[in-house]
Design brief:
This protein is about 5% helix and about 45% strand. It is mostly beta strands. The strands form 4 sheets. The protein has a 4-stranded mixed beta sheet with strand order 4-5-1-8, with no helix packed on it. Strands 3-2-6-7 form a 4-stranded antiparallel beta sheet, with no helix packed on it.
């Protein structure tokens, strides 16, 4: 059984643009609890000098970290998809009471947002279905003007006609069915 131990912990991460590989200068890197998903701390941004172009690294320092140390690292930057990284530091990683963990480069992809001006949803309905020896029509599948009468619907039914003696399909008179 492993016992919890205290250690000085330093975690670094370098978020970059996945395409251009340029450093994301306005990234926000934070630690999330694995228990309840709350934000527990944030990384600080450090400028690295000496290059022609400024580079940045993000560092989290904790002088009294309890190992094992389990958190989720959330890396976010405006205009980019948020990325999550599982951070699990074991007591065996501590050397002389210190752990320096470099997550390394994390590539963030730009958000893919497509705004649509208009969306038109169309659907079709089945006009009729055979149930045993009965042909069942779906009245909602027919286009009727607002306030139309039943005779207008009957005129649209394939093979059905309305005569003075009732409703006929082919040469047969149809039985009346209750509506509902």
């Amino acid at each position: 059984m492993a016992f919890a131990q205290k250690a000085y912990l330093s975690v670094t991460v370098n978020p970059i643009d996945a395409i251009t590989e340029s450093t994301l200068t306005q990234a926000r890197v934070s630690l999330i609890s694995t228990i309840d998903s709350t934000e527990v701390d944030t990384f600080r941004r450090i400028t690295i000098l000496g290059d022609v172009i400024k580079r940045y690294t993000y560092v989290y320092d904790n002088s009294h970290a309890t190992l094992p140390f389990k958190r989720i690292v959330r890396v976010e930057s405006e205009g980019y998809e948020t990325l999550y990284y599982d951070l699990n530091i074991l007591p065996s990683e501590a050397k002389h009471g210190e752990v320096a963990h470099n997550i390394g480069v994390i590539r963030l992809h730009r958000e893919r947002i497509h705004n649509l001006n208009e969306v038109k949803v169309t659907a079709s309905r089945i006009m009729m279905v055979m149930k045993g020896d009965t042909l069942v029509y779906d009245a909602n599948a027919f286009q009727l003007a607002e306030g139309s009468m039943l005779d207008e619907l009957i005129r649209q039914l394939p093979g059905v006609r309305l005569e003075s003696g009732g409703v006929h399909h082919g040469k047969r008179a149809l039985r009346q069915q209750p509506v509902g």
